[in-house]
Write a structure and sequence with these properties.
By secondary structure, this protein is of the alpha+beta class. It has one domain: Thiol Ester Dehydrase, Chain A, CATH 3.10.129. It has 1 helix and 5 strands, in the order E-H-E-E-E-E. Strands 1-3-4-5-2 form a 5-stranded antiparallel beta sheet, with helices on one face. The chain is elongated. The chain starts with 15 loop residues before the first strand and ends in an 18-residue tail after the last strand. 28% of the residues are buried. The structure holds coenzyme A. Residues 57-60, 86-89, 115, 117, 119, 123, 125 line the site of coenzyme A (COA). This is Acyl-CoA thioesterase YciA. It comes from Acidiphilium rubrum. Belongs to the acyl coenzyme A hydrolase family. Residues 10-122 form the HotDog ACOT-type domain.
Amino acid sequence: MPSDDPEAPPPTHPMIRAIAMPADANANGDIFGGWLMAQMDLGGSNLAGRIAHGRIATVAVDAMSFIRPVKIGDEVSVYADLVSVGRTSIKVNVEAWRRARDSENERRVTKAVFTFVAIDSEGRPRPIVVGSDNLR
Ligand SMILES: CC(C)(COP(=O)(O)OP(=O)(O)OC[C@H]1O[C@@H](n2cnc3c(N)ncnc32)[C@H](O)[C@@H]1OP(=O)(O)O)[C@@H](O)C(=O)NCCC(=O)NCCS
């Protein structure tokens, strides 16, 4: 996914989009990192859930970087790109990009590697069956 041009968003559709609201901000008026991580978790799990064909749980977040602040009213787009599929786990590169409401310019604001585990109804890891229909 990530383009070499740091100002060019990935050439794919975002997994989710959200508007950062006042309730998501800290006392400085910037958006909480925890809110951004939650959006990234939602975006990454949207991709992982398709691949796992069922229930998943987030087991790890690695290399989390907060690159630039997000402001109230910004549009936040979360992009996800598959890194690898293990026996029961799925690694996904996840990036969030911001766009000010009055601008067409997008800037990368966060990046991380999320690991999700396919789980059964009891919450135990279950093997992922990779077929032609879940890696599109
Ligand atoms: C997800 C969970 C069921 C995994 O259980 P577990 O006992 O660690 O399972 P395993 O040791 O068999 O590991 C399962 C897979 O996760 C991977 N994994 C486990 N911990 C990991 C970590 N910290 N980082 C990266 N991968 C990890 C293992 O390598 C394995 O991958 P593979 O099968 O593809 O080789 C358990 O850790 C759990 O319930 N965690 C809480 C999840 C949660 O509440 N998340 C927040 C809300 S979604």
